[in-house]
Amino acid sequence: MSLLLDHITYTYPGTTHGLHDVSLRVDTGELVAVIGPSGSGKSTLLKLVAGLETGHTGSILLNGENVAGKPMHQRNIGMVFQQYALFPHLSVVDNVAYGLKLRKVPLNERQNRARDLLALTGLAEYAERSISRLSGGQQQRVALARALAIDPLALLLDEPLAALDASIRGHLRDQIRTIQKRFNATTLLVTHDQEEALTMADKVAVLKDGRLLQFSTPEEIYRAPANKAVAEFVGLSTILPATVIARDLIDAGFARLATATGHRQVGQSVFALIRPENIVPTPSSDATNRISGHIGTQRYLGSIYRYDFLADGAALPLLVESHQIAGNAIALPPEHITLLDS
Amino acid sequence: MKKHGAWLAWLFMLMFFTLPLLALVPEAFSDGGSAFGRVFGDSLFVAATRNTVILGLVAGAVSALVGTAIAIEIARQPAHHRQWMLTVLGLPLAFSGLVIAYGFILCFGRAGFVTQIVAFAGADPAEVGSWIYSVGGLGFAYAYYLIPRVALSLYPVFANFDNAPTLAARTLGASRLRAFIDTVIPEVAPSVLSAGCLVAALAMGTYGTALALVGTQLNILPLLLLAKVSDGGTDFSAAAAMSLVLMAICVLVLGIGDVITNRRERKTH
Lengths: 342, 269
What we know:
The complex is a heterodimer of chains A (about 350) and B (about 270).
Chain A: E1 3-11, E2 18-26, E3 31-35, H1 42-50, E4 57-62, E5 65-66, E6 77-80, H2 92-102, H3 107-120, H4 136-149, E7 154-158, H5 166-182, E8 187-190, H6 194-200, E9 203-208, E10 211-216, H7 218-223, H8 228-233, E11 238-246, E12 249-251, E13 256-258, E14 269-274, E15 290-300, E16 305-311, E17 318-322, E18 329-331, E19 337-341
Parallel strand pairs in A: 3-8, 3-9, 6-7, 7-8
Antiparallel strand pairs in A: 1-2, 1-4, 4-5, 9-10, 11-12, 11-14, 12-13, 14-19, 15-16, 15-18, 16-17
Helix pairs in contact in A: 2-3, 2-4, 3-4
Chain B: H1 2-28, H2 34-41, H3 43-76, H4 79-94, H5 97-108, H6 113-120, H7 125-131, H8 135-159, H9 164-171, H10 176-205, H11 208-214, H12 221-229, H13 236-268
Helix pairs in contact in B: 1-13, 2-13, 3-8, 3-10, 4-8, 5-11, 8-10, 9-10, 10-13, 12-13
Protein backbone atom coordinates (compact mmCIF):
# COMPACT_ATOMS: atom_id res chain seq x y z
CA MET A 1 0.00 0.00 0.00
CA SER A 2 1.94 2.98 -1.24
CA LEU A 3 1.08 6.61 -1.65
CA LEU A 4 2.49 8.50 -4.60
CA LEU A 5 2.06 12.22 -5.17
CA ASP A 6 3.00 12.95 -8.74
CA HIS A 7 3.56 16.56 -9.88
CA ILE A 8 0.87 18.01 -7.63
CA THR A 9 0.04 21.64 -8.32
CA TYR A 10 -2.77 23.44 -6.51
CA THR A 11 -3.61 27.11 -6.07
CA TYR A 12 -6.12 28.36 -3.53
CA PRO A 13 -8.92 30.19 -5.38
CA GLY A 14 -8.23 33.91 -5.70
CA THR A 15 -4.65 33.63 -4.43
CA THR A 16 -1.22 32.63 -5.65
CA HIS A 17 -0.69 30.38 -2.61
CA GLY A 18 -0.70 26.64 -2.90
CA LEU A 19 1.58 23.89 -4.11
CA HIS A 20 3.84 23.90 -7.15
CA ASP A 21 4.82 20.65 -8.81
CA VAL A 22 5.29 18.58 -5.66
CA SER A 23 6.17 14.91 -6.07
CA LEU A 24 6.91 12.44 -3.33
CA ARG A 25 6.39 8.78 -2.55
CA VAL A 26 5.50 6.98 0.66
CA ASP A 27 6.24 3.28 0.43
CA THR A 28 4.35 0.57 2.27
CA GLY A 29 4.78 0.91 6.02
CA GLU A 30 6.88 4.03 5.66
CA LEU A 31 6.33 7.22 7.64
CA VAL A 32 7.07 10.38 5.67
CA ALA A 33 7.03 13.67 7.53
CA VAL A 34 6.25 16.90 5.72
CA ILE A 35 7.71 19.94 7.42
CA GLY A 36 7.98 23.59 6.55
CA PRO A 37 7.20 27.04 7.89
CA SER A 38 3.64 28.37 8.15
CA GLY A 39 2.11 28.84 4.71
CA SER A 40 4.53 26.40 3.11
CA GLY A 41 1.65 24.23 1.87
CA LYS A 42 2.17 21.18 4.07
CA SER A 43 -1.39 21.10 5.38
CA THR A 44 -2.71 21.69 1.87
CA LEU A 45 -0.82 18.61 0.72
CA LEU A 46 -2.50 16.52 3.41
CA LYS A 47 -5.93 17.94 2.61
CA LEU A 48 -5.47 17.06 -1.07
CA VAL A 49 -4.57 13.47 -0.20
CA ALA A 50 -7.57 13.22 2.15
CA GLY A 51 -9.88 14.84 -0.40
CA LEU A 52 -10.65 17.78 1.88
CA GLU A 53 -9.41 20.04 -0.92
CA THR A 54 -9.88 19.31 -4.59
CA GLY A 55 -9.05 20.95 -7.88
CA HIS A 56 -5.34 20.14 -8.18
CA THR A 57 -3.41 18.95 -11.18
CA GLY A 58 -1.17 15.90 -11.05
CA SER A 59 -1.96 12.48 -9.64
CA ILE A 60 -2.49 11.10 -6.15
CA LEU A 61 -1.98 7.36 -6.41
CA LEU A 62 -3.13 5.24 -3.49
CA ASN A 63 -1.97 1.69 -3.94
CA GLY A 64 -1.59 2.44 -7.64
CA GLU A 65 -5.07 3.91 -8.09
CA ASN A 66 -5.50 7.60 -8.88
CA VAL A 67 -7.92 8.93 -6.26
CA ALA A 68 -7.92 12.51 -7.52
CA GLY A 69 -11.57 12.34 -8.63
CA LYS A 70 -12.81 10.30 -5.68
CA PRO A 71 -14.82 11.93 -2.89
CA MET A 72 -13.11 11.78 0.47
CA HIS A 73 -15.44 9.14 1.95
CA GLN A 74 -14.49 6.66 -0.76
CA ARG A 75 -10.71 6.99 -0.40
CA ASN A 76 -10.36 4.68 2.62
CA ILE A 77 -7.95 6.98 4.38
CA GLY A 78 -7.47 7.20 8.12
CA MET A 79 -6.84 10.72 9.35
CA VAL A 80 -5.78 11.98 12.77
CA PHE A 81 -6.53 15.65 13.36
CA GLN A 82 -4.63 18.14 15.48
CA GLN A 83 -7.64 18.75 17.76
CA TYR A 84 -8.58 15.03 17.84
CA ALA A 85 -11.97 15.58 16.12
CA LEU A 86 -13.61 12.82 18.15
CA PHE A 87 -17.38 12.44 18.37
CA PRO A 88 -18.28 13.86 21.79
CA HIS A 89 -21.68 12.16 21.96
CA LEU A 90 -20.20 8.67 21.52
CA SER A 91 -18.27 6.57 24.02
CA VAL A 92 -14.59 5.82 23.46
CA VAL A 93 -15.26 2.37 22.00
CA ASP A 94 -18.05 3.66 19.75
CA ASN A 95 -15.71 6.36 18.44
CA VAL A 96 -13.18 3.72 17.45
CA ALA A 97 -15.88 1.48 15.94
CA TYR A 98 -17.53 4.28 13.92
CA GLY A 99 -15.72 3.61 10.63
CA LEU A 100 -16.48 -0.12 10.96
CA LYS A 101 -20.16 0.66 11.55
CA LEU A 102 -20.18 2.61 8.28
CA ARG A 103 -18.73 -0.48 6.62
CA LYS A 104 -21.58 -2.53 8.06
CA VAL A 105 -19.29 -4.74 10.13
CA PRO A 106 -21.49 -6.73 12.58
CA LEU A 107 -21.81 -5.19 16.04
CA ASN A 108 -19.86 -7.87 17.95
CA GLU A 109 -17.06 -7.93 15.43
CA ARG A 110 -16.62 -4.16 15.36
CA GLN A 111 -16.77 -3.88 19.14
CA ASN A 112 -14.11 -6.58 19.48
CA ARG A 113 -11.90 -4.91 16.92
CA ALA A 114 -12.33 -1.52 18.59
CA ARG A 115 -11.49 -3.01 21.98
CA ASP A 116 -8.39 -4.70 20.55
CA LEU A 117 -7.21 -1.38 19.20
CA LEU A 118 -7.92 0.34 22.50
CA ALA A 119 -5.90 -2.34 24.27
CA LEU A 120 -3.07 -1.72 21.83
CA THR A 121 -3.13 1.99 22.60
CA GLY A 122 -3.31 1.35 26.35
CA LEU A 123 -6.89 2.52 26.69
CA ALA A 124 -8.75 -0.76 27.23
CA GLU A 125 -10.08 0.34 30.61
CA TYR A 126 -11.53 3.55 29.15
CA ALA A 127 -13.67 1.87 26.49
CA GLU A 128 -17.03 2.85 27.97
CA ARG A 129 -16.01 6.33 29.04
CA SER A 130 -17.19 9.59 27.59
CA ILE A 131 -14.62 11.30 25.38
CA SER A 132 -14.67 14.42 27.54
CA ARG A 133 -13.35 12.44 30.49
CA LEU A 134 -10.07 11.64 28.73
CA SER A 135 -6.90 13.72 28.70
CA GLY A 136 -5.62 15.25 25.47
CA GLY A 137 -3.05 12.49 25.00
CA GLN A 138 -5.66 9.79 25.58
CA GLN A 139 -8.04 11.46 23.14
CA GLN A 140 -5.35 11.52 20.48
CA ARG A 141 -4.70 7.82 21.02
CA VAL A 142 -8.43 7.17 20.56
CA ALA A 143 -8.25 9.18 17.33
CA LEU A 144 -5.31 7.05 16.17
CA ALA A 145 -7.17 3.83 17.03
CA ARG A 146 -10.24 5.13 15.18
CA ALA A 147 -8.19 5.93 12.08
CA LEU A 148 -6.49 2.51 12.11
CA ALA A 149 -9.70 0.58 12.78
CA ILE A 150 -10.80 0.84 9.15
CA ASP A 151 -7.53 -0.67 7.92
CA PRO A 152 -6.81 2.41 5.79
CA LEU A 153 -4.81 2.51 2.58
CA ALA A 154 -2.93 5.45 4.06
CA LEU A 155 -2.74 7.08 7.46
CA LEU A 156 -2.61 10.88 7.56
CA LEU A 157 -1.41 12.60 10.72
CA ASP A 158 -2.14 16.33 10.82
CA GLU A 159 0.05 17.83 13.55
CA PRO A 160 -1.09 15.08 15.93
CA LEU A 161 0.96 16.27 18.89
CA ALA A 162 0.67 20.02 18.49
CA ALA A 163 -2.18 20.42 20.98
CA LEU A 164 -0.47 18.40 23.71
CA ASP A 165 1.79 19.37 26.60
CA ALA A 166 5.49 18.96 25.98
CA SER A 167 5.67 16.49 28.88
CA ILE A 168 3.54 13.86 27.12
CA ARG A 169 4.49 14.71 23.55
CA GLY A 170 7.69 12.66 23.59
CA HIS A 171 6.02 9.55 25.00
CA LEU A 172 3.09 9.73 22.59
CA ARG A 173 5.47 10.32 19.68
CA ASP A 174 7.16 6.99 20.42
CA GLN A 175 3.82 5.26 20.90
CA ILE A 176 2.44 6.50 17.57
CA ARG A 177 5.58 5.34 15.81
CA THR A 178 5.42 1.90 17.46
CA ILE A 179 1.76 1.42 16.52
CA GLN A 180 2.35 2.74 12.99
CA LYS A 181 5.14 0.21 12.51
CA ARG A 182 3.07 -2.60 13.98
CA PHE A 183 0.25 -1.90 11.51
CA ASN A 184 2.75 -1.35 8.72
CA ALA A 185 0.68 1.75 7.96
CA THR A 186 1.73 3.89 5.01
CA THR A 187 1.80 7.22 6.79
CA LEU A 188 2.07 10.88 5.91
CA LEU A 189 2.77 13.14 8.89
CA VAL A 190 2.45 16.90 8.70
CA THR A 191 4.18 18.83 11.44
CA HIS A 192 5.82 22.15 12.11
CA ASP A 193 7.97 20.46 14.75
CA GLN A 194 11.24 19.46 13.12
CA GLU A 195 12.26 17.33 16.12
CA GLU A 196 9.04 15.36 15.73
CA ALA A 197 9.75 14.90 12.04
CA LEU A 198 13.38 13.88 12.48
CA THR A 199 12.67 11.40 15.28
CA MET A 200 9.55 9.76 13.82
CA ALA A 201 10.04 9.73 10.07
CA ASP A 202 11.72 7.36 7.67
CA LYS A 203 11.91 10.26 5.23
CA VAL A 204 11.34 13.97 5.49
CA ALA A 205 9.96 16.34 2.88
CA VAL A 206 10.78 20.01 3.39
CA LEU A 207 8.35 22.47 1.82
CA LYS A 208 8.65 26.21 1.44
CA ASP A 209 6.31 28.52 -0.45
CA GLY A 210 4.53 25.51 -1.87
CA ARG A 211 7.67 23.98 -3.35
CA LEU A 212 9.45 20.81 -2.31
CA LEU A 213 12.97 21.81 -1.31
CA GLN A 214 14.28 18.42 -0.31
CA PHE A 215 12.95 14.89 0.16
CA SER A 216 15.36 12.62 1.93
CA THR A 217 16.16 10.70 5.10
CA PRO A 218 16.25 12.69 8.36
CA GLU A 219 20.02 12.19 8.61
CA GLU A 220 20.65 13.52 5.13
CA ILE A 221 18.29 16.44 5.61
CA TYR A 222 20.21 17.40 8.74
CA ARG A 223 23.76 16.66 7.62
CA ALA A 224 23.52 17.63 3.98
CA PRO A 225 20.69 20.12 3.46
CA ALA A 226 20.03 20.85 -0.20
CA ASN A 227 20.17 24.60 0.26
CA LYS A 228 20.23 27.45 2.76
CA ALA A 229 16.43 27.43 3.23
CA VAL A 230 16.44 23.77 4.34
CA ALA A 231 19.47 24.36 6.56
CA GLU A 232 17.77 27.33 8.22
CA PHE A 233 14.57 25.42 8.84
CA VAL A 234 15.99 22.11 10.04
CA GLY A 235 18.01 22.20 13.22
CA LEU A 236 20.02 24.96 14.80
CA SER A 237 23.03 26.25 12.93
CA THR A 238 25.26 29.15 12.06
CA ILE A 239 25.27 30.03 8.38
CA LEU A 240 28.15 32.25 7.34
CA PRO A 241 28.40 33.97 3.97
CA ALA A 242 31.82 33.20 2.50
CA THR A 243 33.87 33.12 -0.71
CA VAL A 244 36.00 30.30 -2.10
CA ILE A 245 39.51 31.71 -2.26
CA ALA A 246 41.46 28.56 -3.08
CA ARG A 247 40.92 24.85 -3.34
CA ASP A 248 39.56 23.71 0.05
CA LEU A 249 39.80 27.21 1.53
CA ILE A 250 37.11 29.82 2.06
CA ASP A 251 37.12 33.35 3.40
CA ALA A 252 34.35 34.04 5.92
CA GLY A 253 35.43 37.65 6.46
CA PHE A 254 36.66 37.31 10.02
CA ALA A 255 38.72 34.17 9.26
CA ARG A 256 39.96 31.90 6.51
CA LEU A 257 38.54 28.43 7.00
CA ALA A 258 39.80 25.15 5.63
CA THR A 259 37.04 22.90 4.29
CA ALA A 260 36.31 20.77 1.25
CA THR A 261 35.18 23.09 -1.56
CA GLY A 262 34.45 20.27 -4.02
CA HIS A 263 33.53 21.41 -7.52
CA ARG A 264 33.27 25.09 -6.60
CA GLN A 265 35.36 27.68 -8.39
CA VAL A 266 37.64 30.26 -6.82
CA GLY A 267 35.69 33.47 -6.30
CA GLN A 268 32.36 31.67 -5.95
CA SER A 269 30.07 32.90 -3.16
CA VAL A 270 28.89 30.20 -0.77
CA PHE A 271 27.28 29.75 2.62
CA ALA A 272 29.18 27.81 5.27
CA LEU A 273 26.85 25.78 7.49
CA ILE A 274 28.13 24.84 10.93
CA ARG A 275 25.99 22.88 13.39
CA PRO A 276 26.45 24.01 17.03
CA GLU A 277 27.30 20.54 18.39
CA ASN A 278 30.18 20.20 15.92
CA ILE A 279 32.14 23.19 17.17
CA VAL A 280 35.08 22.23 19.40
CA PRO A 281 34.96 24.35 22.59
CA THR A 282 38.44 23.55 23.86
CA PRO A 283 40.72 23.32 20.82
CA SER A 284 44.41 22.66 20.97
CA SER A 285 46.65 25.58 20.06
CA ASP A 286 47.44 24.08 16.63
CA ALA A 287 43.87 23.03 15.79
CA THR A 288 42.68 23.69 12.23
CA ASN A 289 40.21 26.59 11.93
CA ARG A 290 41.03 27.78 15.46
CA ILE A 291 39.18 31.05 16.10
CA SER A 292 39.67 33.54 18.92
CA GLY A 293 36.89 35.50 20.53
CA HIS A 294 34.69 35.60 23.59
CA ILE A 295 31.42 34.18 24.96
CA GLY A 296 28.16 36.05 24.44
CA THR A 297 24.69 34.98 25.57
CA GLN A 298 24.61 31.69 27.49
CA ARG A 299 21.66 29.31 27.89
CA TYR A 300 21.74 26.40 30.32
CA LEU A 301 19.70 23.50 28.92
CA GLY A 302 20.30 20.94 31.63
CA SER A 303 22.49 18.38 29.87
CA ILE A 304 24.39 20.95 27.79
CA TYR A 305 25.07 24.65 27.39
CA ARG A 306 24.01 26.57 24.31
CA TYR A 307 25.82 29.86 23.84
CA ASP A 308 26.98 32.47 21.37
CA PHE A 309 30.68 32.71 20.58
CA LEU A 310 31.64 36.15 19.26
CA ALA A 311 34.67 35.60 17.05
CA ASP A 312 37.07 38.53 16.79
CA GLY A 313 36.09 40.61 13.77
CA ALA A 314 32.89 38.66 13.04
CA ALA A 315 29.52 40.31 12.48
CA LEU A 316 27.51 37.21 13.41
CA PRO A 317 27.88 35.10 16.56
CA LEU A 318 28.63 31.39 16.19
CA LEU A 319 26.11 29.17 17.97
CA VAL A 320 27.80 26.51 20.09
CA GLU A 321 26.45 23.55 22.07
CA SER A 322 28.76 21.72 24.43
CA HIS A 323 28.97 20.17 27.88
CA GLN A 324 31.38 22.86 29.01
CA ILE A 325 31.56 26.51 28.01
CA ALA A 326 34.42 27.49 25.72
CA GLY A 327 37.23 29.79 26.75
CA ASN A 328 38.57 32.45 24.42
CA ALA A 329 38.92 30.15 21.42
CA ILE A 330 36.98 27.51 19.52
CA ALA A 331 37.70 25.38 16.46
CA LEU A 332 35.56 24.62 13.43
CA PRO A 333 36.54 21.12 12.22
CA PRO A 334 36.81 21.23 8.40
CA GLU A 335 34.77 18.03 8.00
CA HIS A 336 31.86 19.67 9.84
CA ILE A 337 31.66 22.74 7.64
CA THR A 338 29.10 22.14 4.93
CA LEU A 339 29.17 24.48 1.95
CA LEU A 340 25.89 25.50 0.34
CA ASP A 341 25.70 27.30 -2.98
CA SER A 342 24.31 30.80 -2.63
CA MET B 1 -20.42 43.90 47.92
CA LYS B 2 -20.99 40.70 45.99
CA LYS B 3 -22.98 39.29 48.90
CA HIS B 4 -25.18 42.42 49.11
CA GLY B 5 -25.66 42.38 45.34
CA ALA B 6 -26.88 38.79 45.52
CA TRP B 7 -29.34 39.65 48.31
CA LEU B 8 -30.74 42.56 46.33
CA ALA B 9 -31.19 40.37 43.31
CA TRP B 10 -33.04 37.78 45.38
CA LEU B 11 -35.21 40.49 46.93
CA PHE B 12 -36.23 41.82 43.52
CA MET B 13 -36.85 38.26 42.36
CA LEU B 14 -39.12 37.67 45.35
CA MET B 15 -41.06 40.93 44.96
CA PHE B 16 -41.58 41.01 41.23
CA PHE B 17 -41.56 37.34 40.25
CA THR B 18 -42.31 34.98 43.08
CA LEU B 19 -44.88 36.95 45.12
CA PRO B 20 -47.29 37.72 42.26
CA LEU B 21 -47.22 34.09 41.23
CA LEU B 22 -47.61 32.80 44.76
CA ALA B 23 -50.57 35.18 45.24
CA LEU B 24 -52.43 33.12 42.65
CA VAL B 25 -52.31 30.00 44.82
CA PRO B 26 -54.53 31.18 47.74
CA GLU B 27 -56.89 32.82 45.25
CA ALA B 28 -57.21 29.60 43.23
CA PHE B 29 -57.89 27.58 46.39
CA SER B 30 -60.06 30.26 48.09
CA ASP B 31 -63.20 28.17 47.65
CA GLY B 32 -61.61 24.93 48.71
CA GLY B 33 -60.27 24.03 45.28
CA SER B 34 -63.67 23.82 43.62
CA ALA B 35 -62.47 26.43 41.11
CA PHE B 36 -60.32 23.71 39.50
CA GLY B 37 -63.40 21.52 39.19
CA ARG B 38 -65.31 24.33 37.48
CA VAL B 39 -62.39 25.07 35.17
CA PHE B 40 -61.75 21.46 34.11
CA GLY B 41 -65.48 20.86 33.72
CA ASP B 42 -65.78 23.79 31.32
CA SER B 43 -65.63 22.56 27.72
CA LEU B 44 -64.50 26.03 26.65
CA PHE B 45 -61.42 25.70 28.88
CA VAL B 46 -60.61 22.22 27.60
CA ALA B 47 -60.83 23.44 24.00
CA ALA B 48 -58.76 26.52 24.87
CA THR B 49 -56.09 24.34 26.45
CA ARG B 50 -55.98 22.11 23.38
CA ASN B 51 -55.75 25.12 21.04
CA THR B 52 -53.05 26.72 23.19
CA VAL B 53 -50.92 23.59 23.21
CA ILE B 54 -51.32 23.18 19.43
CA LEU B 55 -50.49 26.86 18.90
CA GLY B 56 -47.40 26.62 21.09
CA LEU B 57 -46.13 23.42 19.54
CA VAL B 58 -46.73 24.52 15.94
CA ALA B 59 -45.29 28.02 16.45
CA GLY B 60 -42.39 26.56 18.43
CA ALA B 61 -41.60 23.88 15.86
CA VAL B 62 -41.86 26.22 12.85
CA SER B 63 -39.83 28.91 14.59
CA ALA B 64 -37.19 26.39 15.68
CA LEU B 65 -36.80 25.01 12.15
CA VAL B 66 -36.75 28.35 10.33
CA GLY B 67 -34.67 30.00 13.09
CA THR B 68 -32.13 27.18 12.86
CA ALA B 69 -31.82 27.61 9.10
CA ILE B 70 -31.28 31.37 9.58
CA ALA B 71 -28.73 30.78 12.35
CA ILE B 72 -26.77 28.40 10.09
CA GLU B 73 -26.81 30.97 7.30
CA ILE B 74 -25.66 33.80 9.58
CA ALA B 75 -22.85 31.64 10.95
CA ARG B 76 -21.65 31.01 7.39
CA GLN B 77 -21.44 34.72 6.54
CA PRO B 78 -18.26 36.79 6.76
CA ALA B 79 -17.99 38.95 9.89
CA HIS B 80 -19.15 42.24 8.29
CA HIS B 81 -22.27 40.58 6.84
CA ARG B 82 -23.02 38.88 10.12
CA GLN B 83 -23.16 42.17 12.01
CA TRP B 84 -25.85 43.80 9.93
CA MET B 85 -27.80 40.55 9.64
CA LEU B 86 -27.88 40.27 13.43
CA THR B 87 -29.01 43.89 13.73
CA VAL B 88 -31.84 43.37 11.22
CA LEU B 89 -32.82 40.13 12.92
CA GLY B 90 -33.10 41.87 16.30
CA LEU B 91 -35.59 44.47 15.02
CA PRO B 92 -38.78 42.36 15.23
CA LEU B 93 -38.05 41.72 18.90
CA ALA B 94 -38.33 45.45 19.60
CA PHE B 95 -41.76 45.85 18.00
CA SER B 96 -44.99 45.80 19.96
CA GLY B 97 -47.21 42.77 19.44
CA LEU B 98 -50.00 45.19 18.44
CA VAL B 99 -47.88 46.65 15.65
CA ILE B 100 -47.04 43.15 14.40
CA ALA B 101 -50.71 42.12 14.49
CA TYR B 102 -51.74 45.22 12.55
CA GLY B 103 -49.00 44.59 9.98
CA PHE B 104 -50.19 41.02 9.50
CA ILE B 105 -53.81 42.17 9.06
CA LEU B 106 -52.66 44.63 6.39
CA CYS B 107 -50.74 41.87 4.61
CA PHE B 108 -52.78 38.73 5.13
CA GLY B 109 -56.23 39.93 6.28
CA ARG B 110 -59.29 39.82 4.07
CA ALA B 111 -58.28 43.09 2.36
CA GLY B 112 -54.55 42.47 2.76
CA PHE B 113 -52.37 42.92 -0.28
CA VAL B 114 -51.00 39.35 -0.12
CA THR B 115 -54.59 38.07 0.02
CA GLN B 116 -55.45 40.25 -2.99
CA ILE B 117 -52.49 38.91 -4.94
CA VAL B 118 -53.51 35.34 -4.13
CA ALA B 119 -57.07 36.23 -5.16
CA PHE B 120 -55.77 37.27 -8.59
CA ALA B 121 -54.53 33.69 -8.93
CA GLY B 122 -58.07 32.46 -8.48
CA ALA B 123 -58.25 31.83 -4.73
CA ASP B 124 -61.23 32.91 -2.66
CA PRO B 125 -60.06 36.08 -0.79
CA ALA B 126 -62.54 35.47 2.04
CA GLU B 127 -61.19 31.99 2.64
CA VAL B 128 -57.52 33.03 2.31
CA GLY B 129 -58.03 36.15 4.40
CA SER B 130 -59.71 34.26 7.24
CA TRP B 131 -56.71 31.96 7.70
CA ILE B 132 -54.73 34.62 9.57
CA TYR B 133 -57.45 34.60 12.26
CA SER B 134 -57.10 30.85 12.85
CA VAL B 135 -54.72 28.98 15.20
CA GLY B 136 -52.41 28.42 12.22
CA GLY B 137 -52.51 32.08 11.23
CA LEU B 138 -51.82 33.16 14.78
CA GLY B 139 -48.87 30.76 14.93
CA PHE B 140 -47.62 32.29 11.67
CA ALA B 141 -47.81 35.79 13.19
CA TYR B 142 -46.06 34.61 16.35
CA ALA B 143 -43.27 33.16 14.24
CA TYR B 144 -42.49 36.74 13.17
CA TYR B 145 -40.80 37.45 16.48
CA LEU B 146 -40.14 33.89 17.62
CA ILE B 147 -37.95 33.05 14.62
CA PRO B 148 -35.46 35.89 15.34
CA ARG B 149 -35.41 34.81 18.98
CA VAL B 150 -34.44 31.27 17.97
CA ALA B 151 -31.95 32.44 15.34
CA LEU B 152 -30.22 34.84 17.75
CA SER B 153 -29.96 32.22 20.49
CA LEU B 154 -28.70 29.50 18.13
CA TYR B 155 -26.31 31.62 16.07
CA PRO B 156 -23.41 31.18 18.56
CA VAL B 157 -23.95 27.40 18.51
CA PHE B 158 -23.33 27.30 14.77
CA ALA B 159 -20.69 30.06 14.70
CA ASN B 160 -18.60 28.09 17.20
CA PHE B 161 -19.43 24.68 15.80
CA ASP B 162 -16.37 22.49 15.42
CA ASN B 163 -16.45 21.08 11.91
CA ALA B 164 -13.55 18.68 12.47
CA PRO B 165 -15.64 15.69 13.69
CA THR B 166 -17.74 15.99 10.54
CA LEU B 167 -14.61 15.92 8.40
CA ALA B 168 -13.32 12.98 10.45
CA ALA B 169 -16.57 11.11 9.79
CA ARG B 170 -16.20 11.86 6.08
CA THR B 171 -12.65 10.49 5.96
CA LEU B 172 -13.86 7.39 7.81
CA GLY B 173 -16.34 6.71 5.01
CA ALA B 174 -19.48 8.70 5.82
CA SER B 175 -21.33 10.39 2.98
CA ARG B 176 -22.08 14.09 3.38
CA LEU B 177 -25.61 13.35 4.63
CA ARG B 178 -24.52 10.53 6.92
CA ALA B 179 -21.77 12.70 8.44
CA PHE B 180 -24.33 15.47 9.03
CA ILE B 181 -26.74 13.04 10.72
CA ASP B 182 -24.02 11.39 12.81
CA THR B 183 -22.05 14.44 13.90
CA VAL B 184 -23.96 17.70 13.44
CA ILE B 185 -27.44 16.67 14.54
CA PRO B 186 -26.40 15.08 17.86
CA GLU B 187 -24.42 18.21 18.68
CA VAL B 188 -27.00 20.87 17.82
CA ALA B 189 -30.31 19.04 18.37
CA PRO B 190 -30.42 19.69 22.14
CA SER B 191 -29.87 23.42 21.59
CA VAL B 192 -32.51 23.53 18.84
CA LEU B 193 -35.04 21.60 20.94
CA SER B 194 -34.31 23.78 23.94
CA ALA B 195 -34.83 26.94 21.88
CA GLY B 196 -38.01 25.42 20.43
CA CYS B 197 -39.35 24.69 23.93
CA LEU B 198 -38.61 28.24 25.04
CA VAL B 199 -40.46 29.86 22.14
CA ALA B 200 -43.30 27.31 22.42
CA ALA B 201 -43.77 28.35 26.04
CA LEU B 202 -43.70 32.00 24.97
CA ALA B 203 -46.29 31.34 22.27
CA MET B 204 -48.56 29.61 24.77
CA GLY B 205 -48.41 32.43 27.27
CA THR B 206 -48.51 35.54 25.11
CA TYR B 207 -51.77 37.36 24.40
CA GLY B 208 -51.02 40.86 22.99
CA THR B 209 -50.68 39.86 19.37
CA ALA B 210 -53.52 37.35 19.67
CA LEU B 211 -55.86 39.97 21.13
CA ALA B 212 -55.03 42.50 18.44
CA LEU B 213 -55.22 39.97 15.63
CA VAL B 214 -58.20 37.80 16.49
CA GLY B 215 -59.88 39.59 19.38
CA THR B 216 -61.98 36.96 21.14
CA GLN B 217 -62.71 34.97 17.98
CA LEU B 218 -60.09 32.38 18.84
CA ASN B 219 -60.36 30.25 21.96
CA ILE B 220 -56.90 30.09 23.54
CA LEU B 221 -56.01 30.11 27.23
CA PRO B 222 -54.51 33.61 27.48
CA LEU B 223 -57.59 35.18 25.84
CA LEU B 224 -59.97 33.07 27.94
CA LEU B 225 -58.08 34.16 31.03
CA LEU B 226 -58.31 37.78 29.91
CA ALA B 227 -62.06 37.41 29.57
CA LYS B 228 -62.24 36.03 33.12
CA VAL B 229 -60.36 38.93 34.71
CA SER B 230 -61.61 41.77 32.51
CA ASP B 231 -64.54 44.05 33.38
CA GLY B 232 -67.20 41.43 32.76
CA GLY B 233 -65.45 38.68 34.76
CA THR B 234 -66.56 37.72 38.25
CA ASP B 235 -65.05 34.28 38.91
CA PHE B 236 -61.57 35.31 40.10
CA SER B 237 -60.77 31.98 41.74
CA ALA B 238 -61.42 30.20 38.43
CA ALA B 239 -59.20 32.79 36.71
CA ALA B 240 -56.46 32.10 39.23
CA ALA B 241 -56.82 28.34 38.72
CA MET B 242 -56.64 28.86 34.98
CA SER B 243 -53.51 31.00 35.43
CA LEU B 244 -51.88 28.21 37.41
CA VAL B 245 -52.73 25.68 34.70
CA LEU B 246 -51.32 27.95 31.99
CA MET B 247 -48.21 28.53 34.07
CA ALA B 248 -47.82 24.80 34.68
CA ILE B 249 -48.01 24.07 30.94
CA CYS B 250 -45.38 26.73 30.17
CA VAL B 251 -43.10 25.50 33.00
CA LEU B 252 -43.52 21.93 31.78
CA VAL B 253 -42.50 22.85 28.23
CA LEU B 254 -39.53 24.90 29.50
CA GLY B 255 -38.61 22.04 31.82
CA ILE B 256 -38.52 19.59 28.92
CA GLY B 257 -36.07 21.93 27.15
CA ASP B 258 -33.92 22.11 30.26
CA VAL B 259 -33.90 18.35 30.74
CA ILE B 260 -32.81 17.83 27.13
CA THR B 261 -30.00 20.36 27.47
CA ASN B 262 -28.81 19.04 30.84
CA ARG B 263 -28.83 15.43 29.70
CA ARG B 264 -26.68 16.38 26.71
CA GLU B 265 -24.28 18.37 28.88
CA ARG B 266 -23.94 15.52 31.38
CA LYS B 267 -23.12 13.15 28.54
CA THR B 268 -20.39 15.30 27.01
CA HIS B 269 -18.81 16.71 30.18
